[in-house]
Amino acid sequence: MAQLIDGKQISKQIKDELKIEVQKLKEQGTGICLAVVQVGEDPASTVYVNNKKKACAYIGIESRAYELPETTSEEELVSLVEELNQDDSVNGILVQLPLPEHINEDRIIRTISPDKDVDGFHPVSVGRLWIGEKGFLSCTPAGIIQLLKRSGISIEGKECVIIGRSNIVGKPMAALLLRENGTVTIAHSRTRNLAEITRRADILIVAIGKERFITSEYVKDGAVVIDVGMHRDSENHLCGDVDFKDVEPRVSAITPVPGGVGPMTIAMLMNNCVETARR
Ligand code: GUN
Predict the structure, then answer these.
(1) Distances in whole angstroms, Cα of residue 242 to Cα of each of 12, 36, 204, 206, 248
(2) Residue 119 among the catalytic residues
(3) Helices (H) then strands (E): counts for the chain
(4) 245 tagged catalytic
(5) What number does the ligand 1 atom closest to the CA of 45 have?
(6) For residues 207 and 171, is the Cβ–Cβ distance under 8 A?
(7) Is 96 among the catalytic positions?
(8) What pTM, to 2 d.p., does this model score?
(9) Mean pLDDT throughout 42-47?
């Protein structure tokens, strides 16, 4: 039986640690405030945003919601972000993505002050990560590092293979695994002989965006498998990029979907919010 890496439990543990830290900061007169900006009413975004607000409430962080209409112009959004940058009562700024098509996401991300960039998406945050300077870490990859560490899985010297090269998951994941002294390979949609490469992995991180794509032929016996995917299948069940039933018997540890990587993203966002006050 593979070890089940329990993201629900580990994220709860992290949030409880943060709650104690936030209480102590409050006693010293330091409050934390996260500005949460949503443009439009995309239902999935609304669920994510509500979960972020709930996590803030649980930990004792003030969340200030800015719910803007779909018709908001790029200039209006830039102005709001600039105002929030200047507002000393705001520690962190989160602009929920995706934004409506008429708004240039890159411009908005670059407008957020790197000192308030709790998503870790600003080019300055990305640069700091790659050169090993302190800065905000992209939440999903930072959460995966915590899942591994808190499950007693060492990264040092291991063959780590990531499938996916997005700016939000694949690329920052590579930087973080490298920082933990892993040997890192990034595979992607144009990779030839994918299974040959993934079968080398001691730790396989799957962020491919295809329902149950990774079957047992893609994994080595005893590997650790982390599934970043989240899909709803034709029977309305949640599932990941990994075919869990097929892969689980072969591996030493694996994340479930749901309850694996998902809950860690918000826990690490909360950690980044607390980090603004630690500095
Ligand atoms: N949309 C989906 N995931 C994220 C995230 O981590 N941060 C933001 N800002 N938007 C998202």
Answers:
(1) 24, 32, 11, 7, 9
(2) yes
(3) 10, 11
(4) no
(5) 1
(6) no
(7) yes
(8) 0.97
(9) 95
